[in-house]
C-alpha cells in the first residue's frame, strides 16, 4: 500500500480526546468525514483510526476518533503524521491535481526554458504557492493559479508557467 500524508497532529484540544491537526490536504471535509478511516504512523506502523467528529476552528482541523474520547488516550499522538491510503482517493476533474502530484514536476517557462523543480506546495494566505528549486538550489514561489500555471502534464512530469518580471 502507498500512503499520502494529509496532516500532522500539533496538539490536543480540550479534555475529550479532540486533536488539533495542521492540514496538508485540499479536501479536509472529505478526509475527516465521520466514519472515514485515517492512518496514524506510530513508530513506523500505520494504525487505523475512525473519525468520530470534525470541525474547523481558527484554520485548524479539530478531529476526534472513535474509542479515543479522553485526552489521556490521545496525548501520545502529538507530533505524529496522519495518512490516507492512496488507493482510496477519488480521481479529480481534468485540470485539477492533488498537491502530491505537483511535487517533483519539472518546471519550464513558455519558451521551454528549464527553470527548476517543484519541491513543495505551500499555504501563504489566500492561495497555495509552488516552491520551485532552481539548479543552483535557490528557490522561488509561483502562485498556483491559472494566470501563472499554464499547463501541467503528469505523463511528461512537466509544468509550464508564465514568467513575469520579478518572479524569479
DSSP summary, beta strand count: 12
Counting helices, strands and paired strands, the structural category is mainly beta
Work out the radius of gyration: 18 Å
Sheet bearing the most strands, described?
6 strands, antiparallel, barrel
H/E series: EEHEEEHEHEEEEEE
Distance between the termini: 38 Å
Question: Which descriptors would you attach to this protein?
Answer:
single chain; 168 residues; mainly beta; Elongation Factor Tu (Ef-tu), domain 3; SH3 type barrels; 2 domains; 6-stranded antiparallel β-barrel; 6-stranded mixed beta sheet; 12 strands; 7% helix; 48% strand; elongated
Can you tell me about this structure?
By secondary structure, the chain is mainly beta. It contains 3 helices and 12 strands. The protein has helices at about 30, 70-75, 100; strands spanning about 5-15, 20-25, 35-40, 45-55, 60-65, 80-85, 105-110, 115-125, 130-135, 140-145, 150-155, 160. The strands form 2 sheets. Strands 1-2-5-4-3-6 form a 6-stranded antiparallel beta barrel. The protein folds into 2 domains: about 5-85, Elongation Factor Tu (Ef-tu), domain 3; about 100-160, Roll (SH3 type barrels). A hairpin with a 4-residue loop joins strand 8 (about 115-125) and strand 9 (about 130-135). The radius of gyration is 18 Å and the shape is elongated. Helix content is about 5%, strand content about 50%.
Furnish the topology, listing elements before pairings:
Layout: E1 3-13, E2 18-23, H1 28-31, E3 37-42, E4 45-57, E5 60-65, H2 71-74, E6 81-85, H3 99-102, E7 106-109, E8 114-123, E9 128-133, E10 139-143, E11 149-153, E12 158-161
